[in-house]
Amino acid sequence: MDRSTFEDRKVVISGPMHGSLRHDSAHKHVTGTADYIDDIPEPAGLLHGALGLSDRAHAEIAGIDLSAVAAYPGVVWVFTGKDVPGINDTSSNGSHDEPLLAETLVQFHGQPIFAVIAETRDAARRAARLAKIDYRDLPHWSDIDGALANGGPLVIAPMTLHRGEPETEMPNAAMRLKGQIRIGGQEHFYLEGHIAVAIPGEDDEVIVWSSTQHPSEIQHIVGHVLDIPSNAVTVNVRRMGGGFGGKETQGNQFAALAAIAAKKLGRAIKFRPDRDEDMSATGKRHDFLVDYEVGFDAEGRIHAVDATYAARCGFSSDLSGPVTDRALFHADSSYFYPHVQLQSKPLKTHTVSNTAFRGFGGPQGMLGAERVIEEIAYALGKDPLDIRKLNFYGQPGSGRTLTPYHQEVEDNIIARVVEELEETAEYRARRNAIIGFNRDSRYIRKGIALTPVKFGISFTMTAFNQAGALVHIYQDGSIHLNHGGTEMGQGLYTKVAQVLADSFQVDISRVKITATTTAKVPNTSATAASSGSDLNGMAAYDAARQIKERLTAFAAEKWDVAPSEVVFLPNRVRVGEIEIPFPDFIKQAYFARVQLSAAGFYKTPKIHWDRKAGRGTPFYYFAYGAACTEVSIDTLTGEYLVDRTDILHDVGRSLNPAIDLGQVEGAFVQGMGWLTTEELWWDDKGRLRTHAPSTYKIPLASDRPKIFNVRLAEWSENTEATIGRSKAVGEPPFMLAISVLEALSMAVASVADYKVCPRLDAPATPERVLMAVERMKRV
User: Fold this and answer.
1) Where do the Aldehyde oxidase/xanthine dehydrogenase a/b hammerhead domain residues begin and end (predicted)?
2) Is 6 inside any structural domain?
């Protein structure tokens, strides 16, 4: 490519909003020059922290001897929960059920009991192993079955969604069936694990660098444990090496411990646990046990559904309430249930408290719904896709638009998405060919599935649907942007900078994206619920609007023209008949004493939710998508390959198609890992045994579909007034991977000539696939 062509392309992609601009840190990611917290030059006198972890799943602490720990060379301080100046608690929901350091009772293997501060990280870690702790063991259970066998204790009040008359209408259905599906959890497995650095300041002040999706919560927690106000705590986040929801609450303990030690010792403190400690001491995706009953007619149209979603939540509530709530919100997937009852069971177990993970319960809810569809299809001897299409939500006025939580689905495009993918992926022809292949193949069997996605966008806690942004324009025309969202590799900073560049019609190179900090934008929500671009993009747009209104009024007065004659053009401003370069225009505004700074704010309209009543409008809109996946399995070993995946996904009018495509691809592969290779396993002593890459298997590059076709629905545009009419992209495509599990199920079902539903649990590891094949042989 010659230089002129490159320059032409550079001009083409510089249209700030809706353009495929590269991620602002992409070149740093690939060259290793992007600074993460462990790359920040270490302050003079930095000390390192390590955790002292419980080796019991459930026990009273009878005695602690830390003398050998304190005597280890290089150790500066050892502290326990009794040394916490404020409240010894890091719970994110005010429940006070999650101690920073356990004092009298441990409730999971790997729970922090004390912390060691030493001159080196190695010394701190070695010293932490020397503690002598006496326990009085108590009964423990680590899974859903154990919790149910012990009375089903809950970590938070359950929720029920109810619409219609399922109790009386279920018996009226022409056909009925019951079933159960087990859905495994998932480790976040970030590239950058949890880490925090605390630097003490004057008086009660402390600065914390934390790898967190929720700087304001870190600020609150640090304030609580130190017994100081939030205005004394500054939390900074430039970027994370992955978040996926796990850094919404799980960074609390590391930031709090670092801050306590920093203020106590007057020195900077760093906490960076090893990978195995990180995996043992921090929460994961909830695993579920779903019991369902469905009534339907001879065509496969659903009449009634009754389902219970039991979840392994761990020892404390954390975010299990909203996670299990969202599972119920998505237990309809894309389907209309005339009569429905859905119940959650957030069960207490003696394991680390599970937490947010991409999809936030939605994937588990949706997977349960897709199993119901699959059951109906096998019971009737039909293609599951036909059952899906028959039960889709309808258009307004059809009488088939009301969700189990009584929200109308007003923006439904799922039928169009599925039909377009069905055609472009040649689903029907390929399915027929696969059935023929399976009839003639002795050991290798194939499967294909096309599954839909409908995912609600907004925090279900209404108050979280707000955001702020701070925008400055300097005299030279350069722009400074800060907002409450955090960058975890998803391109949020780039997208919001595009919004700002578009607002002022300048090249994005003029916009400086700065680290998220509680000192600039206060009271922020977590970068979660796929709402980062929606919320922070609109807040930045609001700040730009304020500044533009001032600039327009200034220009209209100075050049004596109507405000309508002041037009922002690419890198210049037209005022009447003249055009002024943007930097010159800004300088003139400065000398006229025009305020060139603004704090923007946005709150999502229309949403409300009554959890007790199970009614409301928790979502501003829905994002849609569909995936068609083909697999091959070896019936002798259970091993399999993902041969091809075709995806059509709805992101509205994309803010950045290149970034959005990357999000769809990454979400699909991560979802595929959850449903196939990633398996969490605790032994009979409550110890997590899959706590390292040697025993926990995330997908490799070689596991991706051999043919991987991903398209955005370019015709889609959000019917709601979101930024640029775009839609969220972070979580919805994760559930496209359900097509992989469904395709594996079809391949297994071929062994019994598709007569019965294989009821393949997740994750569908080769072992589970092989066991399912053996079951089919006995049908």
Assistant:
1) 31-139
2) no
